[in-house]
Amino acid sequence: VAVPGPAGAETLAAIEPNRLTACGTCEACQGRSAWFCRNRSGHEAFGYVEAMMVPEWALFPMPDGTDPVLATLVEPLACAVHTVRSSHSADGDGRIDGLSVAVLGAGVTGLMTVAAALHLGAAAVTVTARHPHQGEMATQVGATTVLAADDADTATALRKSRPDLVIECVGGTAPTLGLALNSVRAGGEVAVFGLFDEPQPINARLATMKELRLFFPVTYGTIDGIHDFDVAIELLTTSEFPFKSLVTHEFALDDISDAFAAADDKKSGALRVVVKP
Fold this sequence. Notes:
Layout: E1 2-4, E2 10-15, H1 27-30, E3 59-61, H2 68-71, H3 74-85, E4 100-104, H4 108-119, E5 124-129, H5 132-140, E6 145-148, H6 154-161, E7 165-168, H7 176-183, E8 189-192, H8 204-209, E9 213-215, E10 222-223, E11 226-227, H9 228-238, E12 247-252, H10 256-264, E13 272-276
Parallel strand pairs: 4-5, 4-7, 5-6, 7-8, 8-9, 12-13
Antiparallel strand pairs: 1-2, 2-3, 10-11
Helix pairs in contact: 3-4, 3-9
């Protein structure tokens, strides 16, 4: 979003959605995350409009010269960054230096998670991909190993790799939570980043015998005084990851129906679909 700057200039900024309706003064807003604010107000519109008014504290300015299309990736990348930084596997600085990570799913969420894990110190990242174009992009963003999600040998390969941290990035109706529990090393952690459509069964006996930790991240926030948006913006604008390649489709606001259709058809090669006002 472009916001007015000095002398009529405009500054590109990313919007932190949780802060749009949050009070900004309660313990949750001032501490962990505005997501947990209990004093919310209404908001007339969010997105898919040419202009809107937002509270100033919801804006995170982008560095000068940032491509607006690249800036659309801040919010989803911040979710991935939060998953890694707030996991039990991370140290006090939100880093996972030297750990091996497995990411289940290579949609844009999984790909963002690969980038976040590597940026925060992962030594190796294994990714499962359902479609060839997803696997190719996973390699481009730095995945150490890419496995075909539907391959009969993938589950065995994951178990043999004994990752310290498995991040589930599929959700929906996929059987990936069970795969994550089976794959992670004893004493390791499973972070459930994907959003499932229905309640999921958990093999509590397996989790107990392996003494696993389960973490269910929900959204971005502030850790040790640093917001996940700040980390995401730094990663987007200073790293060599080919983030712009994740944006596979761009549509005008008038063609928003076509944008949703493209996003829904994963076989079309769609990763990130952007609607431009």
